[in-house]
Every structure is written in C-alpha cells, then in structure tokens.
Specification:
The chain has ten helices and twelve strands.
Length: 405
C-alpha cells in the first residue's frame, strides 16, 4: 500500500535490507530535454552492486526485471535493469540503465519533475540482489526539506548512496584529490571551533585561484573544492567522536542532527559566498559596484544589488542602471520567492546550479520577468529551446561592468 507522508515513507524503507540512491532529477534524467534515453542516471558500478546478476560479460545485454513503485504519486510497474555490453562484442556501448519506466506518465520522467529530489530505496534479498524498489519523488520543497533533514543536503549534479545494512554512520567518504585537507594541514583553531563559510571559501581560493580560468568554470571548480575542504574538517572533528561511541540513542541522534544541520547551513550560503568572491576578483568594488545582503525595502534583503543600496534608494538614480541578483542552488518552486524583492527592479536575475527546468516552468519564469543565470558547464542540461535565453555568470558580470561605465 502506498504511503503518502514522506516521513512515514522514510521510516518504512530505511531498514537494514534497504539501500538508498538519492539525487536531484536533471533535464537529462526526465523528458525535459526530449532525450530518447531518458531515465534517471545511476552509475553503472552502483547498479552492478545493487543487481550483481547483470554484471556478466558472457551474456549479451544481461537484464533483470524488478517491481518499481513510485509511492509519492503513486505508480507501480515492472521495470527492467539492463547492461548494454556490446563493447565486448565489437561494439561501442557499455552502459547500464533502468528501462520500462512508463514514459511521460511516470513522475520520474515527467518534465515538471526536473529539479525535484528523488529517493530510490532498493530492497535486497538474502543474496544482496535487489528484488524491488520504492521511490519517492518530492512534490514540493517542504518534502525536500524533510528528506534533507534526514540525510543532509543534496546538491544538483550530486548523488548519494546510503546502505542501511552498513555501519558507515554519517557517510563520510574521502575523495582522492588535492582539496582534501590532511589533519596536519587543518588550522588548529578550526579543530576547536568549526570554521565559518567565509573562512572555508578563503581556503578554497588558495587551492583554486583564478589564473585565467573563466568565471563559470571557476565557480563550478571552487564549489567542488570547497565541499571537499568542508568534509575533511568535518571528518577530522567528527570521526574521533564517532569512534568513541554513544551511551544512549538520544546522544547519538543529537550528534547526528548537529552534523546534518551544519551541512545544510553550509549548503544554503555556499553559492552566495562564491559569487561574492568572484565579483571582488573581477574588480567590482564591494559597496561601490555591488552590495551583498542590502536592504531594498523594509523587511526585504535581496542577495545582491548593483551598484548598491544607496543608488537603489535614491529616486533620481535611473532604474535602467539597477540590477538585482538572487542566488538559489535549486530554483524549482523556490524561484517565486524572489519576486517581491527589490520593487524598483522589474527584471530579476537568478543565479542557480539546477540542472534544467521544464519548458512550462521556464515560460512561467519569463512571464514573471525572471532571468536565469546559469554557469556555462550546466547549460547543456536545459532544453534546447531554453538555452538561448539563459545568461552565463560571466555575461552577467560583463553587463554589470557596462552599467558602471
């Protein structure tokens, strides 16, 4: 029987025999981009782990049927996982996919689901082979908040695996690259008091200086680097405490919640702080050419005003020379929150890392005079009809420079 409360659903499908795969649906996952290979991306190595029987080179395109239930909507069907392996027979294809999802009628493929948080809970049998999968596609931001309160923030382009049969309590994994801080390289005061977002951003700039890298690439690379720094400090502080163990469940839950809340706090302000650092690097003077978190009207604080609060509140300053930039990592549903910010500026700019929107949602944004600012590496995840109307961050900065001239 379908469960219609996400909290109840998570409780039901987080037992030791379950393994979760969590991601935000991109335009390449759904039918938003009209891809003939639509379907949520799950790395091949993950599917081999969940369905070990399909990992057989001796069989051409091995497959397995399993029961898939989208409990959030609801929807149930017989799906198929296939390893297309003709590369081992003179071909070029070597990928695993889940098929028979039901086309546009499925919440997983519906273009309007683009940007939504989706949780796949695979149930394993005694041989550790999945025999069914329950899915929840979050229907609104309140459900997304409830999921992220349980597992931590999920950024666009990221995925997370949570095996409830394994003891990896907080899913702390060490990436194998240069932004991970070794224990001896972590500032001593950071181990006493967790660093602020601004302090971690400054350390990120040391690892990823501009060095001629274009603005959009710089933003993406730094975001990835910054999260690695954050995780390395988190591990250095949290892992010794985890190894000590807990005397009771209350202490365990309190500690876990403190980690998750810190991750959410970092996630909420990270993109904003990176944008501010880039504006300064690009010789935009703070308080002169842009202002961070100014007051536009009483009770309203847009993320960025250009050139500044004083110009905005000066009725003689021409409105055509004012700009507002809101910053939201994901924009599905949340884009409407910016409409009542900075009333003097009818056209709102919104910087986001979300990987695609539906054509219908983009039409709504256009009608509300919202202009999406999307880093160049992400633009390909948007429908082709939408791509010409997107603005890169580099282009936005160039426009602000022209206003100053």
């Amino acid at each position: 029987m379908a469960l219609y409360d996400v909290t109840e659903w998570m409780d039901e499908y987080s037992k030791p025999e379950h393994i979760w795969y969590i991601k935000r649906l991109s335009g390449n996952d759904t039918l938003a981009n009209k891809s003939h290979q639509a379907g949520p991306y799950i790395p091949k190595k993950i599917l081999f782990d969940i369905f070990p029987s399909i990992h057989d080179q001796n069989v051409e395109n091995p497959r397995k049927e399993f029961y898939l239930m989208i409990d959030s909507h609801p929807d149930a069907r017989q799906a198929t996982v296939i390893w297309y392996n003709n590369k081992y027979r003179g071909g070029t294809r070597n990928e695993a996919r889940i098929t028979n999802l039901g086309g546009g009628a499925s919440a997983l493929l519906d273009p309007e689901s683009t940007g939504s948080l989706a949780v796949f809970s695979f149930r394993r049998d005694e041989n550790r082979e999945a025999d069914c999968c329950h899915v929840w596609v979050c229907r609104h931001e309140t459900e997304e908040d409830q999921v992220e309160d349980r597992i931590g923030p999920i950024q666009p382009g990221e995925w997370r695996l949570k095996d409830f049969g394994q003891p990896d309590l907080f899913d702390i994994k060490r990436p194998d690259n240069s932004c991970w801080l070794k224990s001896q390289d972590i500032p001593t005061d950071w181990l006493i008091k967790f660093p602020t977002g601004a302090e971690i951003i400054q350390k990120t700039l040391d690892f990823r200086p501009s060095h001629g890298v274009d603005i959009d690439q710089r933003l993406i690379k730094r975001r990835n680097c910054e999260f690695e720094i954050f995780q390395s400090v988190e591990e250095a502080i949290a892992l010794p405490r985890i190894k000590e163990g807990f005397d009771n469940v209350t202490d365990f839950v309190t500690f876990a919640q403190s980690l998750l809340q810190r991750r959410k706090a970092r996630s909420g302000h990270s993109l904003e702080l990176h944008a501010k650092a880039i504006f300064i690097e690009e010789n935009l003077g703070e308080e002169k050419d842009f202002q961070h978190q100014p007051h536009s009207e009483p009770g309203k604080r847009p993320d960025f005003l250009f050139p500044n609060q004083s110009c905005y509140q000066d009725p003689t300053f021409p409105e055509k020379n004012l700009r507002m930039l809101a910053v939201k990592t994901t924009c599905k549903d949340r884009w409407r929150q910016i409409l009542n910010e900075a009333n003097r500026i009818p056209n709102k700019h919104l910087l986001t890392l979300q990987e695609g929107v539906s054509e219908n949602q983009f039409r709504e944004m256009q009608e509300a005079n919202v202009k999406l600012v999307v880093p160049k590496p992400i633009i390909s995840t948007y429908p082709k009809s939408v791509q010409p109307h997107l603005q890169t961050l580099e282009s936005f900065v160039a426009d602000v420079r022209l206003l100053n001239l």
